[in-house]
Amino acid sequence: MFKRVAGTKDILPDEIFWWQKIESASRSIFSTYNYREIRPPIIEEAALFNRSLGEFTEVVQKQMFLIKNQQESYALRPEATASIVRAYIENSLDKTCGFSKFYYLGPMFRLERPQKGRLRQFHHIGAEAIGSSSPDIDAEVISLADTLLKAYSVEGYELKINSIGCADDKKELTKILHKGLAQELGNLCPDCNARFNNNILRILDCKNEACRKIVAKLDIEGNHLCPECKEHFNRVKQGLDDLGINYRIWPHLVRGLDYYTRTVFEITHANLGSQDALCAGGRYDNLIQELGGPDLGAMGFAFGVERLNLVSTMALSLTAEKKLVFLITLGESARKEGAKILARLRRADIPCDTDYAGKSLKGAMRAANDLGAALVLILGEDELKKNVIALKSMASGEQKEIRLEDLTKELKCSGPTTADSCP
Ligand code: HAM
User: Fold this and answer.
1) What is this structure's pTM?
2) Domains of the chain
3) Does the structure show a pLDDT above 70 at 213?
């Protein structure tokens, strides 16, 4: 028997309802903020990610799903920001649209060790605002993430923000860290020892207790920021204050991808355990130019949908939303007439189904119940002769006879669909 690949998940029909609600709430909110959907491909040249995320990042070093042949090396995308910037440049969107706001939903792939909230195929819901360096956009993007979380019925989350500064500031921070940590190499974990030489900023958010204690002693609270980056960060904070968004300044937040500059943020939830980031993002002012485009600023974020699923309390009233009508036919002529009735109801947009397994009346009623049907129609030889059909409410158990020609109208008016659709 085949099994699913480790770190992947089957999203079964009973669960899909939550996903569809999350997706439709997202689409609706994105559109009120004037973000438009973009769907880049799932595979890209691997070099795109090496270049944008950084050769020495964990994602590029250890987590890429690579597809190689003799000439090319492709990767299943580990994230979508790089693809969207590639698409923005390749399709000259800077010339046709200028400042552009995009959103996306879809699967991402990272070859990680699976655990709670950490998968090898997971889903992002993300936004990218490309073409502006204004701190107002940082505040808008963060407030958009906050609005989405409210729509997803997630409570008890924490927003952490920081500024890592421009490219020069990042070099300055790197210097400060090299100086402050050189004497501590023997006390840092093996991963941080490797990071010391090629990705030192990541030492700041190492989860190892010993590393955390060492890092806590470093005086890095914004000391590396140039006056422009300080001013930018002040304006972001002011923008969030004006919008009434709660946040905490987190001087050790650096994020794991090299493209970030200036504002970075993370939204965490205590109930998630060690993989506690629900959403993460920030500014990437050099990436567009780095990938061959114009010198434009940009800012975005991505939610991990599987992690949202672990903390969202969105109420699911499956039966109320489904409003299914289930038809039970008794006998051959009723079965034939039943097929025509189903076709008629479906043409009128009434969701309906029947039993295809030749069940008894009792068995078919059970099937209707299992499917969460709101109403059951029963058609036997007697009903056929009288040109009627029995209509039973699953909630009240009440049953009445309806003339066949009145059935569609009856279901539209009093049945599973709303009164507004009543002709
Ligand atoms: P990221 O922090 O790598 O950022 O991923 C964003 C979110 O995806 C995380 O906060 C987490 O919720 C979820 N996530 C990441 N890896 C996994 C995994 N293995 N299993 C389940 N969920 C996961 C980015 O990808 C950036 N592209 C975000 C961004 C957009 N920055 C600017 N624009």
Assistant:
1) 0.90
2) 13-166+226-316 (3.30.930.10), 324-414 (3.40.50.800)
3) yes
